[in-house]
Design a protein that fits this description.
With 476 residues, the protein is mainly alpha-helical. Helix content is 75%, strand content 3%. It starts with 5 loop residues before the first strand and ends with a strand.
């Protein structure tokens, strides 16, 4: 029996909404995902030198890098599994499940007793964070008005660096042996994430299911009820007319063959764009952020308990980039801004590493140049994830995000921490510089790809960018 078609104006009603109390609650409850990811990544980066000590886990630089790679491997697997489930079961169901898995991983990490136990628990934590990427990016796109989607998406992704700031600041105190014993400080650092995670379990109870997702699954009555509740928070009867309607014919769950055909045959240019944007920034970020505390310690003799201060400067720069530049991605446009931010970050890192190679930098000047680099790179990388989440049909949005995150991170980022660990262990400044230059060249290649293939998605509804597979033509 064929599915029953119906008309709806809910997508248009979502896009005409003013910013309201609902949106603040929504972005706060979901933005904490990136805060937790930033906290996790920065704590490990700042802890890198401390984990080398025999009084902690006694790891090598290579093992610190491998543990970072295990975290990324977990995130890749989690993204694919939970991304598929988010498209089939809904965005909201995955929020609580992945957060509970994160809490388990964070708490188990505090109990690590060896490299392999540490790496395993890091992989579990990463699986939860990877799963959250796809479900939450989908929900953000589907609930935020089109005219604001760029700046809001970048702002939410920037909370990663708020978590990094909290992690870097906390490790300054927790790694000070005069305040906390060395055997305990690194364990307490990982416990921080669990504290934030518990608070978010409560906040997420108030985040609704995506009305757009409900529509394509034939649950129009539920979508209408949620839509009316959202509108009540945003002015009710004072809202402007919604505009055009859309006809929806709910489809059976997509098989992987249909998904693959849609990606590769229907949208080949967008596939290339997504892979290049994600893979380039994955190598760039995972290589540099995992290595610079060790570089500060080994090349500039920054004490272990002071590296957190330099990490803090980097985190602030990364936070400011999307917040300061985010509005321009909705006004100047995606294509120009993504290309510019990727290119500028690549050019600055090339200049910085040439100076590092000849030995004219100290810890402060090196960190300053890195901070300028990541001011631009952070905005560009956040917009890369935003692009992937906007340009594919609603029925496969979460899985598309997951696939591009997984494939891009595997290609570009999975081996980067371990590679840079090996380069640092080599003791050769020139080899380390070649690693950084490779990252810069990838960012420049991504800038060129965006110029050639990037769609003009700014201020457009998701349905204008790509019609859902279950949608027919719009009507007035």
């Amino acid at each position: 029996m064929s599915a029953i078609s119906f008309e709806t104006d809910i997508p248009a009603r979502l896009d005409r909404l003013p910013w309201s109390r609902f949106h603040w609650l929504f972005v706060t409850a979901l933005g904490v995902t990136w805060l937790l990811d930033g906290l996790e990544a920065t704590v490990v980066a700042a802890l890198g030198p401390a984990l080398l000590r025999s009084t902690t886990l006694g790891l090598s630089a290579r093992q610190v890098g491998l543990s970072q790679s295990m975290y990324l491997a977990g995130a890749i697997g989690g993204a694919i599994v939970f991304g598929h489930l988010a498209d089939r079961l809904g965005r909201k169901r995955l929020f609580s499940a992945t957060l509970l898995i994160y809490l388990s991983g964070a708490l188990l990490t505090t109990l690590s007793w060896s490299f392999w136990s540490f790496a395993l628990f890091r992989a579990l934590t990463g699986a939860a964070i990877g799963g959250e990427y796809s479900a939450i990016n989908s929900a953000v796109d589907e609930l935020v008005p089109a005219r604001l989607r760029g700046r809001v998406g970048l702002a939410i992704n920037s909370t990663y660096w708020l978590g990094a700031i909290l992690g870097a600041g906390a490790t300054v105190w927790l790694l000070d042996p005069e305040l906390v014993p060395q055997w305990l400080g690194w364990r307490l650092s990982f416990a921080l994430g669990a504290v934030f995670g518990v608070a978010m379990l409560v906040a997420r109870r108030y985040v609704p299911e995506s009305p757009r997702w409900l529509l394509i699954h034939g649950r129009s009555a539920e979508a209408e009820a949620i839509m009316r509740e959202i509108e009540a928070h945003a002015g009710g009867g004072t809202l402007p007319p919604a505009g055009k309607k859309m006809r929806i014919t709910p489809q059976p769950a997509l098989g992987f063959g249909r998904i693959l055909h849609t990606l590769v045959v229907d949208y080949p240019g967008r596939c290339i764009l997504g892979l290049v944007l994600i893979a380039s920034q994955a190598f760039f970020y995972n290589g540099i952020t995992s290595s610079y505390p060790l570089v500060l310690n080994l090349y500039f003799e920054v004490p272990v308990d002071r590296t957190g201060l330099f990490v803090l400067v980097m985190a602030v720069s990364n936070l400011l980039g999307p917040l300061v530049l985010g509005r321009l991605f909705d006004t100047v446009g995606r294509r120009f801004m993504i290309s510019a931010t990727y290119a500028l970050s690549g050019c600055v890192i090339i200049a910085a590493e040439m100076l590092f190679l000849v030995g004219v930098l100290d810890a402060r000047t090196q960190t300053t140049l890195w901070a300028v680099t990541f001011f631009f790179a952070s905005a560009g990388a956040s917009a890369g994830y935003l692009t992937v989440s906007e340009i594919f049909p609603l029925e496969m949005r979460a899985l598309a995000i997951a696939l591009f995150f997984a494939i891009g991170t595997t290609i570009g980022g999975l081996g980067a921490p371990a590679l840079f660990g090996e380069l640092i262990d080599s003791g050769r400044r020139d080899l380390l510089v070649w690693g950084y230059l490779a990252g810069a060249l990838l960012m420049l290649a991504a800038a060129a790809t965006e110029l050639l293939l990037g769609p003009a998605a700014e201020r457009k509804s998701l349905e204008e960018i790509t019609l859902p597979l279950s949608a027919g033509t719009r009507s007035s």
